[in-house]
UniProtKB/TrEMBL annotation:
It holds the Pfam family ABC_tran. InterPro entries: AAA+_ATPase, ABC_transporter-like_ATP-bd, ABC_Transporter_VariousFunc, P-loop_NTPase. Gene3D superfamilies: P-loop containing nucleotide triphosphate hydrolases. Residues 5-227 form the ABC transporter domain. It comes from the Bacteria. The lineage of its organism: Bacteria, Bacillati, Bacillota, Bacilli, Bacillales. One of its GO terms (molecular function) is ATP hydrolysis activity. PANTHER family: ABC TRANSPORTER ATP-BINDING PROTEIN ALBC-RELATED. This is ABC transporter ATP-binding protein. It comes from Paenibacillus lutimineralis. Keywords: ATP-binding, Nucleotide-binding, Transport. CDD domains: ABC_DR_subfamily_A.
Length: 232
């Protein structure tokens, strides 16, 4: 399969505010893609459309060659920038909740990841710090055997030392025939794991390139390129 995700001429407005403007791109399987842009550039909107959470938009979106529907939802695992779990839950309740809800949830992988992330199943979610909560959300999202993972700002609240560990977990725990899209503005910390990057600025896709090619062609790191494109 060539295209795991394809956007063709996709636009999305919230009232009179345009969030995505005629966006077209496609990505193949087995890639880690950085979706990069400053605040309000349209990253979350793009992810929510792909996850099937924003049904009203113009243009065409396909996942694994299929228009968005319940089938595509079942192969897309989305980690939103705000937790989906309830604060009364303990960590183990969140795991059970996901396991009941998603038939592709891999319990053995979830338990292994909890351990790696130093998360205690007995802890209440309301007692977790922002960074620990992100570790939990990441564990939940990556423990599904999905085809496409969408991680919206997965390391914003994690301290710099733990970031390395979390990035290693992302690379280790995602299955390699699937693809992973990660939105972030922490470009420098995370660019080492990207195969491709997409820059999105005020709703316009301004660059989509393989990281190797970008470095060769422009003689710059992704972070330097990001600063240049998004300079205010
Ligand atoms: N529910 C909404 N109602 C109205 N406007 C919205 C809504 N959600 C997003 N927007 C607007 O759409 C634009 C794109 O927002 P989006 O959340 O997709 O950006 P983002 O790149 O994810 O930003 P951030 O990095 O700050 O999370 C912004 O101008 C935002 O204010």
């Amino acid at each position: 399969m060539d295209n795991l995700l394809q956007f063709q001429g996709v636009s999305k407005s919230y009232g009179s505010r345009k969030a995505l403007n005629d966006v077209s791109f496609s990505i193949g399987p087995g890639k880690i893609i950085g979706l990069l842009g400053t605040n309000g550039s349209g990253k979350s909107t793009l992810m929510k459309i792909t996850a099937g959470l924003l049904p009203v938009y113009s243009g065409s979106v396909t996942v694994a060659g299929q228009p968005l529907d319940l089938n595509t939802k079942s192969i897309v695992s989305f980690m939103p920038d705000r937790p989906l779990t309830e604060s009364w839950m303990k960590v183990r309740d969140a795991i059970t909740f996901y396991s009941d809800f998603y038939s592709d949830f891999d319990m053995a992988k979830a338990l292994q990841m909890l351990d790696f992330m130093n998360l205690n199943p007995q802890d209440r979610i309301s007692s977790l710090s922002k960074g620990m909560n992100e570790r939990l959300q990441l564990t939940l999202a990556l423990s599904r055997n999905a085809k496409l993972y969408l991680l919206d700002e997965p390391i914003g609240g994690v301290d710099p030392v733990a970031r390395t560990k979390i990035l290693d977990a992302i690379v280790e725990f995602y299955s390699e025939d699937s693809s992973l899209i990660i939105s972030t503005h922490l470009v420098k910390d995370i660019e080492r794991i990207f195969d491709e990057v997409i820059f999105i600025k005020n709703g316009d896709l301004v660059l989509h390139e393989e990281v190797e090619e970008l470095r060769l062609k422009h003689g710059k790191s992704v972070d330097d390129m990001f600063k240049e494109v998004f300079a205010e």
